[in-house]
Specification:
- This protein is an alpha/beta fold.
- 31% of the residues lie in helices and 19% in strands.
- The chain is built from 7 helices and 11 strands.
- Strand 2 and strand 3 form a beta hairpin.
């Protein structure tokens, strides 16, 4: 396993380019996010995505969320049904930030990534390193937690190394991540907002925006 040091808040473009190159070659990396360490792979590489499932011991029917670097990157990833008005309002309020929104996936999206459910969870993070890496990669990046499924999420690079260091290709060591509450996940594929996981952003905060859209 290769270890690459990075400054999370002010990442060196040369180092970011090196990491993006690893991803393009099919590597799976552990990297710091705005909450915990995540597992990253190029979403265009099914073999790399399969490796993430193997690393985590994760069932294939559980989809993997992805990160984008800009809101304009959303359109080619979701179906022609587009973005519901209430989801648009939530993105206005909480993106970039710790909110993952599940949409109907575009027809070209890998079924391995979506768990064959036709849906994809997407987040626009506020984290400087994550956004710079996705921009350099030129396409979205997977961001499921860097742990064994069912085990606690990890905010220490040493804990990541101990847990899965023998299974990943590289560890991007940015020091400790923020930890605390996980990102919030909602489903926006229907007419009503469906809470999948409450995290940093509370259900009450989301409902307030959703109620305002309906009034």
């Amino acid at each position: 396993m290769q270890i690459i040091k990075i400054d999370q808040s002010d990442p060196d473009p040369v180092v970011v380019s090196e990491i993006a190159g690893l991803l393009k070659s099919g590597a799976v990396i552990a990297f710091p996010t705005d909450t915990y360490y995540g597992l990253g792979a190029d979403i265009d590489n099914d073999e790399a995505i399969k490796k993430i499932f193997a690393i985590k011991g994760r069932p294939y029917n559980q989809p993997i969320l992805i990160l984008i670097s800009d809101r304009k990157d959303l359109k080619p990833l979701i179906s022609r049904r587009g973005v519901p008005v209430f989801a648009d309002r939530l993105m206005d309020k909480f993106w970039p930030g710790p909110l993952t929104i599940v949409f109907h996936a575009s027809e070209g999206m890998s079924e391995i990534l979506t768990g064959s459910a036709g849906k994809i969870g997407i987040r626009l993070p506020a984290h400087p390193f994550c956004r710079s890496l996705v921009r350099e990669l030129g396409r979205p990046l997977t961001a499921t937690s860097a742990n064994i499924s069912g085990k606690p999420s990890l905010c220490s690079p040493s804990d990541v190394r101990d847990a899965i260091g023998d299974r990943i290709d590289a560890l991007v060591d940015g020091g400790m991540t923020q930890g605390g509450a996980v990102s919030t996940v909602i489903d926006a594929t229907g007419a009503e907002l469906v809470m999948i996981r409450e995290g940093v952003i509370s259900e009450g905060q989301l409902r307030e925006i959703f109620s305002g859209e309906k009034s």
